[in-house]
Amino acid sequence: MSERGLLIVLSGPSGVGKGTVRKAIFDSEGNEFEYSISMTTRQMRTGEKEGVDYFFRSREEFEELIQTGKMLEYAEYVGNYYGTPLDYVNQTLDSGKDVFLEIEVQGAMKVKEKVPDGVFIFLTPPDFDELKSRIVNRGTDDMAVIDERMKVAREEVDMMRHYDYAVVNDKVDLAVDRIKKIIESEHYRVDRVIHRYEKMLKEF
Ligand SMILES: Nc1ncnc2c1ncn2[C@@H]1O[C@H](COP(=O)(O)OP(=O)(O)OP(=O)(O)O)[C@@H](O)[C@H]1O
Ligand SMILES: Nc1nc2c(ncn2[C@@H]2O[C@H](COP(=O)(O)O)[C@@H](O)[C@H]2O)c(=O)[nH]1
């Protein structure tokens, strides 16, 4: 049986560039991760596609999946549910592939409780002014939602202490390189590889 893959969680405040950096990682050379497509109850934005950006569902459908234990984690964020379907993650990790989640902070903390040996990476903005201008310039949210996202962002940045790594997203290509290096080195951590040798050592 192949070794179980790594669960990689990229998180951070809204607008910091998680989606941008995640897409750049998946477009980069030598990428071998599998992206877990999230489910949400929010409205589809112009240009988004069902099953590519998200699985878009009604609140009733989402709540049914929560109640039947089909979500690894979920969170209510600025009035909508967002969550990670459990079966895809388990099946992909069991097949030996690494799974990449791009999720907000409350959800990341729930994953940490359930999968403590995951790799938890917090993407940080260079500063709060830059964070706000990224959300404003993206042009996807009205001012009330932007203010709400900025309020939540202050609390989220404080949660950085619970992560394994903090990566500043000053330039997308630099953030991508930093994250890929972190993941590569995580594969060589002794606690991740020792079990392969345990049987051998016992018989030696
Ligand atoms: N390093 C960067 N420098 C300048 N602009 C950036 C950088 N990274 C991302 N951006 C821009 O910031 C905006 C927000 O990025 P993105 O949508 O990827 O953030 P996000 O963290 O995924 O947001 P959300 O959590 O709300 O989905 C986008 O317009 C994106 O082009
Ligand atoms: N807890 C989870 N958060 C998720 C998931 N998928 C996306 N997200 C995060 O939600 C916010 C808002 O996203 P947007 O697409 O409306 O801008 C953002 O921080 C995403 O990273 C998920 O499965 N679980």
Structure description:
- The strands form two sheets. A five-stranded parallel β-sheet has the order 2-7-1-8-9, with helices on both faces. Strands 4-3-6-5 form a four-stranded mixed β-sheet.
- The protein is an alpha/beta fold and 204 residues long.
- 28% of the residues are buried.
- Helix 1 crosses helix 7 (172-186).
- Strand 5 (71-77) and strand 6 (80-85) form a beta hairpin.
- The protein is 46% helix and 19% strand.
- It has eight helices and nine strands.
- The model has no long low-confidence stretch (mean pLDDT 94).
- The chain binds adenosine-5'-triphosphate and the ligand Nc1nc2c(ncn2[C@@H]2O[C@H](COP(=O)(O)O)[C@@H](O)[C@H]2O)c(=O)[nH]1.
- Adenosine-5'-triphosphate (ATP) binds at residues 14-20, 134, 137-138, 169, 171-172.
- The site of the ligand Nc1nc2c(ncn2[C@@H]2O[C@H](COP(=O)(O)O)[C@@H](O)[C@H]2O)c(=O)[nH]1 has 14 residues, from strand 5 and strand 6.
- It comes from Vagococcus carniphilus.
Write the layout of secondary structure elements.
Layout (H helix, E strand, L loop, with lengths): L6 E5 L6 H10 L6 E2 L3 E2 L14 E2 L2 H9 L3 E7 L2 E6 H9 L4 E4 L2 H10 L4 E6 L3 H11 L4 H16 L6 E4 L3 H15 L3 H14 L1
Parallel strand pairs: 1-7, 1-8, 2-7, 3-4, 8-9
Antiparallel strand pairs: 3-6, 5-6
Bound molecules: adenosine-5'-triphosphate (ATP) and the ligand Nc1nc2c(ncn2[C@@H]2O[C@H](COP(=O)(O)O)[C@@H](O)[C@H]2O)c(=O)[nH]1.
The site of ligand LQESDW3C has 14 residues, from strand 5 and strand 6.
